[in-house]
């Protein structure tokens, strides 16, 4: 998925014979987006999940950690535990709601981190070229060759988390790994975009007028090269949420007492558990899939909006 | 330590498997083929960790193989666990300190040489010598002269001056004597442990032979190893075997599984003939006893000697000593043992009411008293009277042994009943847990398990709670307790010794160094091809009784 995202064409910026002439590319994209039902579906889903992450109390009053072992494996029912009980007798519904926080924060933070890191690297490489470009490109390739999951497993095994660490420390550790291994993707994209924008007349004009590199980058190159990065970053968000779930599933991502969809899915996926209590597996999986789907749909919609060929 | 290692390897050895997930079990051919020429069965096994020498194997994977390739002075009856003479003709003593051992002349090693008294004495001397670095050397501790074979406080930097224990003397080819430093009334019972097996003359002839026998051991047991590699170990009938426990099958294939679920599925499909001792029945199959329904008449349960308990870390000052007593009791009282057994272990375990397993003679229920009975109100009250607990209380377990479910349940109960923060904390594997324990790095509480080395009440007390004992992970030390152990060791076997050990157990009840949880059962399963399945309290399949179904 990540690969596919990298390959898609870079939205040209300067010479767009756009139908919506007279508007900036950004506002044109927004008009385009508003018309897409897919965008609204994903946006509504995302709003709901973000609400869950920010204020889970709005959705449930049950303590997700409260266990009543006597109720273990209770089946879902409309006048009882809505999603059933897990093996420890905890409410699957409450745990699914509370699990959103870990997944979303990993997804969002990892996206922000990779985007910022990747953008800086890509900008520097593309703008300065020459040996700076060569060195940054090679460094990027080194990280590019390490598979995301393999690197994550190695790192998290090497630096285990202490139990007293708050959720945010655990999250940041995973974010760090994902960012470390994920930035070259964005950097390549950014470099490509910068190279495309750099020869433009307005950049040359600014240069001729004696503008400093900082000014050229921030007021001319960056705004025009940002669009493809935002598109790919949105799609990657879903990928990172899935990566966190995978790491937690393997028992090395977020750990008890943190609640995450990945670790709950892991706990529920023994053959015996699937037979005895399929609801334990179903609900966290469903929410995880919906979240990933929502972000990928959003990314798709944004890409379409920014790509004039698809307009 | 040794017993412990085995112990938990038995329970936890499940282990490494889960992490690696490599389903390399399963082999190709269907086992237990019904060819008449040679009867062959296959058994789910696990990866052997140390050389297959009696003095070095202290975990269940290698131990099971060795158990069948060696014969010892005594053998534990698979039904009653009582020691019966095997190679020994007689073991006599007048004072519980000088033992006279006469052996039967008929036994032969699998290389055809006879078993002589010197084979025992040489083997024990060799394994006790610290320069040979044998893991089981601890079992020879009671023998006089053992200390002369240890140098530098166990570090063994310099070679010992002698290579023989003065307490062992060969009288003739069929007789030798054992002298112990103190009175040890249950010594004859201990002699059935694998560390006390004899080694053949060829073992001592050259280093090359020793190396070879680490892989292909030569013993006097009913079987011999014919091939040994990472995927399976094949045993064949020992043609020279002279004992009374002749097997009905010609060949036994110990197939190594990395994942107990794979072994279980193979038994289900009749591709494997037995699982449950080395590869346990997977935890999730126990839910609602699904495994029993699926196997329909091909499963069994046997009370095992495995005793599960929680140890309070000696480095956690909030928990230890007299000042932490009320807190320890409060924690123990807030654990609902029967409920966890029902919900996690499908009622296959039984709650513990003391520190000694019911499988040994001298077991007396109730040493733990009300501390082992679920009583949230009393627990809360004791907790209020105690100094409380600051910070997060951890319950550390090894993630590779199917302990997650019950450890999380215990953590929730203690947390909810006492109102403190309790977290079940996994360490990746059993080895890491043991290493951290040895380095005294684990604070809070941790899980422990104990499978007996020999059927004696002493084996549940001395090695775990004696001052400075090898497996004393609680760091427990009480002069009265140590004294009582000495009194018990020199008392006559039977009722007098048992009563003395029970007194020692009652001291544990007052000091409460560990919280007893439950006595475990071995769950096992077999294929349609075999019959006469018998599993003993040591969690061992009896290979002398299993046989192919007559078609």
Keywords for this structure?
heterodimer, A: 311 residues, mainly alpha, 12 helices, 70% helix, disordered N terminus, B: 551 residues, alpha+beta, Dipeptide-binding Protein, domain 1, Dipeptide-binding Protein, domain 3, seven-stranded mixed sheet, four-stranded mixed sheet, 19 strands, 28% helix
Strand percentage of chain B: 15-25%
Rounded mean pLDDT of chain B is: 87
Intertermini distance of chain A: 23 Å
* Individual helix count of chain A: 12
Which architecture name of the largest domain in chain B does CATH use?
Answer: Roll
Question: Helical residue percent of chain A?
Answer: 55-70%
In angstroms, what separates the terminal alpha carbons of chain B?
46 Å
By CATH reckoning, the class of the largest domain in chain B would read Alpha Beta
The CATH homologous superfamily of the largest domain in chain B corresponds to Dipeptide-binding Protein, Domain 3
Low-confidence stretches of chain A: 1-21
Task: Return the structural class of chain A.
Answer: mainly alpha
Which regions of chain B are unreliable across 5 or more consecutive residues at pLDDT < 50?
Answer: 1-36
Shape of chain B: globular
| Overall number of strands of chain B | 19
The CATH topology name of the largest domain in chain B reads Dipeptide-binding Protein, domain 3
Number of strands of chain A: 0
Order of helices and strands of chain A: HHHHHHHHHHHH
Region (Disordered) (chain A): 1-20
Subcellular location (chain A): Cell membrane
Organism (chain A): Microlunatus endophyticus
Pfam family, one (chain A): BPD_transp_1
């Amino acid at each position: 998925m990540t690969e596919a995202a990298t390959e898609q064409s870079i939205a040209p910026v300067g010479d767009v014979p756009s139908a919506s002439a007279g508007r900036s590319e950004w506002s044109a994209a927004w008009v385009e987006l508003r018309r897409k039902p897919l965008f609204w579906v994903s946006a509504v889903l995302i709003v709901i999940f973000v609400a869950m992450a920010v204020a889970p109390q709005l959705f449930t009053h049950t303590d997700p950690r409260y266990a009543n072992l006597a109720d273990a494996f209770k089946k879902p029912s409309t006048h009882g535990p809505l999603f059933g009980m897990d093996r420890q007798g905890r409410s699957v519904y409450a745990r699914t709601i509370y699990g959103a926080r870990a997944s979303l924060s990993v997804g969002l933070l990892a996206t922000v981190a990779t985007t910022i890191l990747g953008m800086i690297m890509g900008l520097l490489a593309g703008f300065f070229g020459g040996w700076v470009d060569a060195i940054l490109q090679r460094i990027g390739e080194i990280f590019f060759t390490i598979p995301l999951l393999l690197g994550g497993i190695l790192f998290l095994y090497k630096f285990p988390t202490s139990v007293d660490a708050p959720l945010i420390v655990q999250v940041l550790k995973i974010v760090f790994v994902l960012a470390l291994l994920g930035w070259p993707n964005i950097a390549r994209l950014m470099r490509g975009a910068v190279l495309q924008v750099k020869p433009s007349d307005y950049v040359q004009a600014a240069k001729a007028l004696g503008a400093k590199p900082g000014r050229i980058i921030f007021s001319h190159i960056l705004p025009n090269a940002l669009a493809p990065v935002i598109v790919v970053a949105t799609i990657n968000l879903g990928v990172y949420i899935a990566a966190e779930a995978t790491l937690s599933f393997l028992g090395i991502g977020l750990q008890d007492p943190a609640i995450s969809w990945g670790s709950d899915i892991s706990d529920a996926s023994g053959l015996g558990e699937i037979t005895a209590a399929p609801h334990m597996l179903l609900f966290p999986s469903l929410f995880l899939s919906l979240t990933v789907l929502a972000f990928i749909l959003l990314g798709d919609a944004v890409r379409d909006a920014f790509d004039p060929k698809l307009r | 330590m040794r017993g412990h290692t085995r112990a938990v390897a038995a329970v936890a050895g499940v282990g490494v498997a889960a992490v690696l997930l490599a389903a390399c079990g399963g082999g190709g051919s269907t086992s237990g083929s019904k060819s008449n020429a040679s009867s062959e069965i296959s058994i789910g096994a696990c990866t052997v960790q140390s050389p297959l020498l009696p003095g070095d194997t202290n975990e269940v994977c290698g131990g099971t193989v060795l158990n069948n390739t060696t014969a010892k002075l005594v053998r534990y009856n698979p039904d009653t666990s009582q020691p019966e003479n095997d190679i020994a003709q007689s073991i006599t003593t007048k004072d519980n300190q000088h033992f006279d051992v006469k052996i039967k002349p008929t036994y032969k090693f699998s290389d055809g040489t006879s078993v002589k008294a010197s084979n025992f004495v040489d083997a024990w001397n060799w394994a006790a010598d610290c320069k040979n670095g044998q893991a089981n050397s601890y079992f020879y501790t009671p023998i006089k002269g053992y200390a002369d074979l240890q140098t530098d406080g166990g570090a063994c930097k310099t070679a010992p001056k002698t290579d023989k224990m003065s307490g062992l003397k060969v009288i003739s080819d069929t007789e030798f004597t054992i002298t112990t430093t103190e009175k040890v009334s249950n010594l004859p019972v201990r002699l059935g442990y694998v560390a006390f097996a004899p080694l053949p003359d060829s073992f001592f002839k050259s280093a090359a032979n020793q190396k070879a026998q680490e892989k292909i051991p030569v013993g006097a047991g009913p079987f011999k190893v014919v091939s040994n590699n990472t995927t399976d170990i094949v045993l064949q009938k020992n043609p020279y075997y002279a004992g009374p426990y002749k097997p009905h099958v010609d060949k036994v294939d110990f197939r190594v599984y990395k994942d107990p679920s794979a072994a279980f599925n193979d038994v289900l499909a009749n591709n494997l003939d037995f699982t449950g001792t080395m590869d346990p029945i997977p935890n999730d199959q126990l839910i609602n006893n699904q495994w029993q329904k699926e196997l329909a008449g091909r499963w069994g349960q046997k009370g095992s000697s495995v005793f599960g308990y929680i140890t309070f870390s000696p480095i956690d000052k909030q928990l230890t000593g007299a000042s932490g007593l009320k807190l320890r009791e409060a924690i123990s009282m807030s654990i609902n043992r029967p409920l966890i057994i029902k919900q996690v272990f499908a009622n296959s375990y039984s709650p513990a009411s003391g520190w000694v397993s019911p499988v040994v003679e001298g077991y007396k229920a109730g040493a733990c008293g009300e501390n082992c009975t679920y009583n949230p109100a009393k627990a809360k009250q004791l907790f209020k009277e105690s100094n409380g607990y600051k910070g997060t209380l951890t319950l550390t377990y090894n993630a590779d042994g199917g302990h997650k479910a019950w450890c999380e349940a215990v953590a929730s109960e203690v947390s909810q009943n006492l109102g403190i923060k309790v977290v079940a904390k996994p360490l990746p594997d059993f080895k890491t847990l043991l290493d951290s324990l040895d380095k005294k790095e684990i604070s809070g509480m941790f899980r422990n398990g104990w499978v007996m080395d020999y059927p004696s009440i002493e084996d549940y007390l001395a090695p775990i709670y004696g001052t400075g004992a090898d497996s004393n992970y609680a760091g427990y030390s009480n002069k009265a307790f140590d004294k009582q152990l000495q009194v018990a060791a020199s008392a006559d076997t039977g009722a007098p010794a048992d009563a003395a050990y029970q007194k020692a157990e009652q001291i544990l009840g007052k000091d409460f160094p560990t919280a007893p949880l439950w006595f475990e059962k071995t769950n096992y399963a077999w294929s349609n091809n075999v019959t006469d399945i018998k599993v003993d309290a040591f969690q061992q399949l009896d290979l002398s009784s299993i046989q192919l179904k007559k078609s």
